[in-house]
Structure formats: structure tokens, C-alpha cells
Amino acid sequence: MLTNVPFDRVYLARGSTDLRKSIDGLAVIVKECFDLDPFSPSLFVFCNRKRDKLKILQWEHNGFWLHYRRLERGTFHWPSEKDSAPMHISPRQLRWLLDGLTLDQKKAHREVTARTIL
Questions:
Q1: If we measure between CA atoms, which residue out of 5, 6, 89 comes closest to residue 47?
Q2: Confidence of residue 1 (pLDDT cuts 50, 70, 90)
Q3: How far apart are CA 68 and CA 56, in angstroms?
Q4: How many CB atoms lie within 10 A of CB 14?
Q5: What strand order describes the sheet that includes 63-70?
Q6: Residues 107-112: contacts with CB under 8 Å, at least 24 apart
């Protein structure tokens, strides 16, 4: 799915979003509500009220991608709407979310920064 897609950041729209919106409607939310640039090399992730559908908005070169995921069973562990600002997460956390896990994996291996060996 998003394995070979270049992006710098991932933003989650907290709470629920009306997923009847398409590319233009979601881009307006990114620009007007979040005060972010929808043309940046970022992924903007939106979830419906039932938390069983996601849309991911992404700009690439000369057009938008709109990725859509619908679960047949279960729900996404989506953060509640504590404030209107989007939540910045890592690509690793996005993978957890898409796999049905919470954003805070207590049992996951810690990230290791490689050091040079002399």
C-alpha cells in the first residue's frame, strides 16, 4: 500500500470526519482547519465516526492520491477529539494503526539509532 510512497510526516485528524468528502473537501480541512499545506510531502489521515473506514490524502508530483481502507470486522484505535489540532505520528505508528493496534505499543521494540563502528 504505502510502502514505496515518499512522505515526511503523518497527521491524524482527531475525532471523526465525514468521509463523504473527497479530495477537495479533505484538502480544505487540511488547509483551513489545520493550517497545513495539503501539497506538502505528508500523509493526512481521516477516520469516520464508526472507526471502520479511513481515508489518507497525499500529494505526489502533479496530483493527489486518495487512499481508502474499509474494515470488514473491528475498528481502528483512533484518538479521541481532545483538541482540533491534528496529531503528528510516525510512519511506524501509522503502520500500527492500520494493523489494528494502538498508537502506544508498550511491547514493541524500541527504535535504535545506528552508530558507526570504528
A1: 89
A2: low
A3: 7
A4: 17
A5: 63-70, 53-60, 42-47, 9-12, 87-89
A6: none
Contacts of 31 (CB under 8 A, 6+ apart): 37, 38
Sign of CA dihedral 44, 52, 18, 14: negative
How far apart are the C-alpha atoms of 58 and 42, rounded to whole Å? 6
Please state, in angstroms and as integers, the Cα–Cα distance from residue 68 to each residue in 53, 85, 106, 107, 110, following that order: 7, 22, 28, 28, 29
**52 touches 19 (CB < 8 A):** no
The whole-number pLDDT of residue 80 equals 77
**Contact at 8 Å (CB) between 38 and 62?**
no
First to last CA, the chain: 38
pLDDT tens sequence across 84-107:
788 899 888 999 899 888 888 777
What are all long-range contacts of 20-25, with beta carbons under 8 Å and residues at least 24 apart? 21/46, 22/66, 23/57, 23/64, 23/66
